[in-house]
């Protein structure tokens, strides 16, 4: 496992609320998965072992449907929070980079450096999307 880069975590602090929401939604999702598993086991055991009819299992199946729909809503919310956290962090990284550029004193002798800087500001920061939207929320959730 890669160690956390403290410089990147500085920008993750700005997305603390989004990370908290992602972690809370991850915990809710775990509880919903357990509820879904319990409901499926209950429905199957009552249907096959208990010999219950479909009308007897209607309430449990409606509860199962509600849990599945709520899980989908929680997953959507979690993805939305993670993507917003990533976008905010990348925006702050780009702002910090652009604020630092004038201090570098780029001139015509360092044209290659300005090209590298342009690539860093675009593709280089976009690579961090998975770090901020997937890795950090899962790290804190674990």
Give the arrangement of secondary structure elements:
Layout: H1 6-13, H2 16-49, H3 58-104, H4 111-126, H5 129-141
Helix pairs in contact: 2-3, 2-5, 3-4, 3-5
Describe this protein's structure:
The structure is a single chain. The protein is mainly α and 142 residues long. Helices cover 83% and strands 0% of the residues. The protein contains five helices and no strands. It has helices at residues 6-13, 16-49, 58-104, 111-126, 129-141. α2 (16-49) packs antiparallel against α3 (58-104), α2 (16-49) crosses α5 and α3 crosses α5 (129-141). It is rod-shaped and about 80 Å long. It starts with 5 loop residues before the first helix and ends with a helix. The mean pLDDT is 81.
Short description:
It contains five helices and no strands. With 142 residues, the protein is mostly helical.
Largest sheet: none
The gross shape turns out to be rod-shaped
The succession of helices and strands, N to C, reads HHHHH
Kindly provide the radius of gyration, computed on alpha-carbon positions and rounded to a whole number of angstroms. Answer: 24 Å
The pLDDT mean sits at 81
Which strand-content bin applies to the residues? under 5%
Number of strands: 0
* N-to-C CA distance: 13 Å
Structural class: mainly alpha
Low-confidence stretches: none
Helix % is: over 70%
Q: How many separate helices?
A: 5
């Amino acid at each position: 496992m890669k160690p956390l880069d403290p410089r990147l975590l500085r920008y993750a602090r700005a997305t603390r609320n989004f990370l908290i929401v992602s972690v809370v939604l991850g915990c809710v999702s775990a509880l919903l998965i357990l509820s879904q598993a319990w409901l499926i086991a209950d429905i199957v055991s009552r249907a096959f072992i208990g010999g219950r009819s479909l009308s007897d299992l209607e309430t449990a199946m409606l509860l199962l449907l509600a849990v599945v729909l709520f899980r989908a809503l929680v997953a959507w919310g979690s993805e939305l929070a993670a993507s917003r956290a990533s976008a905010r962090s990348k925006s702050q990284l780009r702002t910090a980079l652009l604020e630092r550029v004038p201090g570098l004193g780029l001139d015509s002798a360092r044209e290659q450096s300005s090209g590298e800087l342009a690539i860093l500001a675009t593709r280089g920061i976009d690579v961090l999307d998975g770090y901020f939207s997937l890795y950090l929320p899962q790290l804190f959730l674990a």
